[in-house]
Structures are given as C-alpha cells and as structure tokens.
Amino acid sequence: MKILLVEDEKDLNRSITKLLKKNNFSVDSAFDGQEALDYLDYSEYDVIILDIMMPNMNGYTFIEHMRKRNFTIPVLMLTAKDSLEDKIKGLDLGADDYLVKPFEFQELLARIRALLRRLNRSHTTNVVTIQHITIDFSTKSVFKKQEIVDLTAKEYEVFEYLVRNVNHIKDKEQIRQHVWDFDYEGESNIIEVIIKNIRRKLDLEDKPSIIQTKRGVGYVIRTK
Q1: What are the residues facing 51 on neighbouring strands?
Q2: What is the pLDDT of residues 84-138, one digit of tens each?
Q3: What values do phi and psi take at 201, rounded to 5?
Q4: Residue 149, SS3?
Q5: Average per-residue pLDDT in the chain?
Q6: Own/partner pairs for 83-88, CB < 8 Å, 24+ apart?
Q7: Alpha-carbon distances of 39 from 36, 87, 118, rounded to whole Å
Q8: pTM (predicted TM-score)
Q9: Residue 142, by phi and psi: left (phi above 0), alpha (psi -120 to 50) or beta?
Q10: In this predicted model, which residue has the larger pLDDT, 196 or 138?
Q11: In Å, how far are 21, 173, 199, 205 from 178, measured between CA atoms?
Q12: Could you give the CA distance from residue 33 to residue 38 in angstroms, rounded to a whole number?
C-alpha cells in the first residue's frame, strides 16, 4: 500500500515517514498542497495523510482541488485545529477522517487501517478468484487451488495492484510508482524479477501465465 504524506513540519514529516515505512507502507512526502497535487499527476495512492496549515497551498484548498479533479483517494487530515467548525469544514470538503495533533503514532496507524478497510469494502468483494488463483484483500492472502502461497510483501503488492486493475495494462513505471516511493532508485530490472517470481509461484505448468506480458507496453491480468 502506498501513502502520500503532506506535512510541512519537517521533523514530524520525517518521523511519520519512518513509522509508516517501518510498518511496510510505501511513502511519498510532500511539504505543501501544491507539491502534493504534482505528486498526484505521477503516482497512485491508497491513502493521503494531510496537514491543514501549510504554506503555498493549505490542506483545505488541496482537498478541494483534489476532489474537483475526481480523485477519490481516502484522506486523513492532521491538524492542531480542533474546533468543531474546522472538523466540519474538512469533512465537508471531502476528508474521510480527522486526527488532532499531538497524536499517538499507534492511533495514526489504526486510523489508516480503518481507511484501508473502508477502501476494500468499496470494492464489490474482498475476495477475488481469477482462474485457479484466489486473492483475499482483507487478509492479504493468495491461494493457488485453495492452497495458500507465500508471496513476499512486494510480490503481494505488485500482484494485488494488477488484480485491482484487471484487464488494464500497467507499465513498469506505473507499477514501480505504486509499490515503491517516488524517489526509489533500486535495480532497474526489479519489476521483471518480481513478476518472474510471482509467475513461478502462481502459474500452472500446463496453462498460460496468469500475468500476461504485452511486449513494449506492460503487464496485465485478463478475465476476458
């Protein structure tokens, strides 16, 4: 899962980023609303953590622009402003939850998990079966002919991303930006390696691969 953190307090931004990465989230960090809007043009996110009082573009203006552009990503607002009017304003503009500073990191993680559960419930089902493979989004489990398959965290994230975008081709850059941080500078062939490992674990010997390659374009899981 990938999170966009928008927080202008650099020490707090670094602390939250460190916490989220420690809990296996990919994180991109922005320091004002305009920078965050630029990130939305280049990557996809599962949750946005958004401060309100920021330079250049505050959280209220950011979320207003974001919703007008039809981004439906869940937003958790962080703020020192705890009046009822401020909370109502944020929620009315399109925030999904509200956390007042100072806060405990464990509560932040719990609220993120709650938003992700809501995101999963917004899909028609938490369990999807494609060919001989079943994926349970709620437990992050993958089954091959009813037997659980041990995917690494990154293998699961790549496979889940392709399943959630079934019948839509995703290129390497889209996969990389969804699964890793924006500034990731790992090995250039990491996507090929992960796809190869997923196929080795999930494919049947006498059947075509569940993940198809469109040469020069990207990867896709097809149901039609």
Answers
A1: 78
A2: 887 888 888 889 999 988 899 999 999 998 888 777 665 556 788 999 999 998 7
A3: -85, -30
A4: strand
A5: 88
A6: 86/52
A7: 5, 25, 23
A8: 0.66
A9: beta
A10: 196
A11: 14, 8, 20, 30
A12: 9
Rounded CA separation 107/187 (Å): 35
**CA-to-CA distance for 144 and 207, rounded, in angstroms?**
13
pLDDT, tens only, 134-183:
999 878 899 999 899 999 988 998 999 999 888 889 998 888 878 876 66
User: Given this model, what pLDDT does residue 88 score?
Assistant: 86
- Written as six digits, the tokens of 182 are 């924006």
Gap between the Cα atoms of 70 and 55, Å rounded: 24
Beta-carbon count within 10 A of 130 CB: 14
Burial 42-65 (b: 16+ CB within 10 A, else e): ebbbbbbbbbbebeebbbbbbbeb
Distance CA 60, CA 95 (A): 9
**Residue that has been written with the tokens 């990154």 in this structure:** 154
Give the strand pairing for 218-220 and 212-214.
antiparallel
- Regarding beta strands 26-30 and 97-100, do their DSSP bridges make them parallel or antiparallel, or are they unpaired? unpaired
3-state secondary structure of 162: helix
CA atoms within 13 A on the CB side of 52: 22
Peptide bond into 102 cis (omega under 30): yes
Contact (Cβ atoms closer than 8 angstroms) between residue 211 and residue 163: no
Length of the chain, in residues: 224
Query: Under 8 Å CB-to-CB from 165, ≥6 apart: which residues?
Result: none
